Amino acid sequence: MAKIVSIVGARPQFIKLAPFSRALKLKEDVLHIIVHTGQHYDYNMAKLFFDELGIPSPDYHLGVGSGSHGEQTAEMLKGVEAVLTRESPGVVVVFGDTNSTIAGALAAAKLHIPVAHIEAGLRSYNRKMPEEINRVLADHCSDLLLCPTENAVNNLKIEGFRHVVNNGKLVRNTANVRHEGALVVNVGDIMYDSFLLALEIALEKSDFIERSGLVRGQYYLATVHRAENTDDTARLKAILQGLSRIGANKRVVFPVHPRTRKIIESIPEEYGAGIDLIDPVGYFDMIMLEKNACGILTDSGGIQKEAYFCGVPCITLRDETEWEETVDAGCNVLAGADADKILECSTAMERKIKTSEKFFGEGNTSAIAVELIRKVKN
């Protein structure tokens, strides 16, 4: 029986794990072991997602918690290495670009266990982002690179990955060859799988819009969590000022990460009555908030895509994005941390958009990924 270990630790990874674990359940010859690093340990940020999405309870919970990037990654690396030594899996699967991702990839690579990276090939080309470092290093530790888009595939070809599958055919890139054994495949975006699954449940289960007294299409949804924004007081103040200006005319609902709330509360004069700070919400409630907003303001890569899936305009509170497809399609604009530009973009994008192009696959990424991962050999 094949043994596959999945390493997760943060909210976006729980969301991606849900359809992947469901696809694995259909394979009787696979033993799936889940390792939760504890990167997100607040109930609403962790256990709630397992409960709501029907993900099996983790086989291992490392309980790492918060800390500096070096401290957190080191503790994860130590814990993951111990688990992998004990379990000796055939493949380790990592998701996305968090500290849990790089810890899992690095621990497996050092133990000579093949690594499959789901959501490989994304690049912002901003090395100041911890996530950029994580995703680059995880890719270069991986044996199977499962890309969400053609742009991601092309990024890896530029970096010297040789074996690339396009439209089911193996293509050899002979320039700058460094990765003889790694296989790069565009499998589509696993988050689209997650979104379709969650939307169906959310429409039946969530009454958050009604309970919150929100009017559909008459509020903005905001999220801010990336260190480049929360740890830079000037950027955070500018973002809050931009949200306040929007909030003067239309309500801004802002589910706040616990860490971000502490920082915002230290500069309360920077946000006005129009910003409604609320506690983090479950995934189904978040989907309903996204689907019924007139616009979304975020620094989250995942929420940029979910805005696209919902057909809701997105304003990205960063200077660059990994999801260039959404910008090219005209449904996402980069406002950075400029209060004037944030307000300007909100005025210009107050309309629903059509998203007919299938940049992110057909919603069957999990099934494709599972078949490829099962073929990986030590």
CATH class of the largest domain: Alpha Beta
Q: Which structural class do the helices and strands define?
A: alpha/beta
CA-atom Rg in angstroms = 20 Å
What portion of residues is helical?
A: 40-55%
Which CATH architecture of the largest domain would you pick?
3-Layer(aba) Sandwich
CATH topology (fold) name of the largest domain:
Rossmann fold
CATH superfamily of the largest domain: Glycogen Phosphorylase B
Tertiary shape: globular
Low-confidence stretches: 169-178
Count of discrete structural domains: 2
| Separation, N- and C-terminal Cα atoms | 14 Å
Tell me about the biggest sheet?
9 strands, mixed
Strand content: 15-25%
Output the keywords.
378 residues; alpha/beta; Rossmann fold; 2 domains; nine-stranded mixed sheet; six-stranded parallel sheet; 15 strands; 44% helix
Write up what this structure looks like.
With 378 residues, the protein is α/β, with parallel strands linked by helices. The chain folds into two domains: 199 residues, Rossmann fold (3-Layer(aba) Sandwich), CATH 3.40.50; 155 residues, Rossmann fold. Helices cover 44% and strands 19% of the residues. A nine-stranded mixed sheet has the order 3-2-1-4-5-6-9-7-8, sandwiched between helices. Strands 12-11-10-13-14-15 form a six-stranded parallel sheet, sandwiched between helices. Strand 13, helix 13 and strand 14 form a beta-alpha-beta unit. The chain is globular and about 60 Å long.
